[in-house]
Amino acid sequence: MSDPRSWDHKAPADHLPIRRALISVSDKAGIVEFARALAAAGVALISTGGTATLMREAGLTVTDVAEVTGFPEMMSGRVKTLHPKIHGALLADRGNTAHMAEAEAHDIAPIDLVVVNLYPFEAAIARGAAPGELVETIDIGGPAMLRSAAKNHAHVAVVTDTEDFAPVAEEIARTGGLSQATRTALAATAYARTAAYDAAVAGWLARHAGQTMPRRRVIAGKLAAPLRYGENPHQAAGFYRDDDPRPGVGTATQLQGKALSYNNINDTDAAFELVADLGRDRPACVIVKHANPCGVALGDTLAEAYQKAYDCDRTPAFGGIVAFNRRIDAAAADAVCRIFTEVVIAPEADAGARRVFAAKRDLRVLIAGAMPVPATAADRRLHLRQVSGGFLAQDMDDAGPGLSAAKCVTVRQPTEMELSDMAFAWTIARHVKSNAIVYARDRATVGIGAGQMSRVDSTRIAARKAGDMAEALGLAMNATMGSVVASDAFFPFADGLITAADAGATAVVQPGGSIRDGEVIEAANTRGLAMLFVGRRHFRH
Length: 541
Prior knowledge:
With 541 residues, the chain is α/β, with parallel strands linked by helices. Helix content is 37%, strand content 19%. The mean pLDDT is 91.
């Protein structure tokens, strides 16, 4: 046998000396430094293909896997580590005398450490690789080695994340091996990685087969940041990222401020997705509190858009989340910083804005780098919600044809200005918790009613908030006078529409479809309102 001394651990022990390591990585970042640290600790190195070449070029002594197995790499590299001399070395229970006898009989030398990361399948999906390339990027030998080593973590250590290189190298240098606690943690990471990898492959194959809701669904993510707590201080929480490259809170760079909280992340995502839906034609601002927009506006400048959004409802704007749809300038930054704000997110911020923000050290400023494309029917991103015993999965709610497919059901037709405001309000209603009512005028919200059990209550609350702001601003009349109203679902009775008309609304956009549509249309005609039926509901629970 090539290294019989390594089998001298007859039973699991807390401390495993690391004498022989197999290294085979696709992502080679940091691998030479890690291998050099292992070699310095007296660890013998085994490797494959490009990894072995790279380490030899760095002056390290490496044994090829082909020399261990007695077989060359074959079938374009598909077969190289799938061999008993590798998997026997990983799976042998060193406390089992029968296993040890078989290892001796077949000249299988132990491997104490496996260092493997996988072919970049997720990256190939992200760049839109063709199906043939994707199939060739599905790793087989790598996951097999990770799973074998992780199963036998009583006797073998496994490393798959580059983040573990430094602590593993440090522990080996200090103790000559790895503790059971370390090996168990590494094994958990390895199984999570192979599960995530398999989930990506399964998801792609399901989409390739045209399955929108496959029989089995696996969700995977990688911890991006541990959070101090969840929605409340007694709840543990973490922020996990998946492989979706969509610009947003998950991909943004934080320029400054305290660490994001669970609620910050949730609210910031809501704000940025809504501002993205408003497009890039005009400067836009969204202010969110508790995942609901409390002010949304378009303007000639970002500063103007922010002020109009702020004037919709100034009370919840305090401590809110602000999202912009273009590069923030100093004027917009100055407007935001006049009150306490938790988070600002935008595709970019210029030097002047960054100087203004820097004076507010606790303000979290996120730069997404780009704006996400509004969701469409072809967008198969999933919206997930956990329930007892499982989870619900659905496609993301897309805007659909919007007002282009709407039908006017009243005698009076909407004016061009009303149509513009109705399209604006309809976009926002899709982002407000049901029952959702949005009053808008001049491409700015003037009242928002969210999350009420009764639609008429949402209508009344939104109008009352507008009245409160009119009084606070010293306006002669309520801002809902001359506004339009968007409702995310149909009015089940005429009372909600009548309430909106009494508040001064002149036009209404809603899905339609109630058995009492006739009563609602009659009420709109009686009060001279224009009303559109879109034929598409946008509940948000």
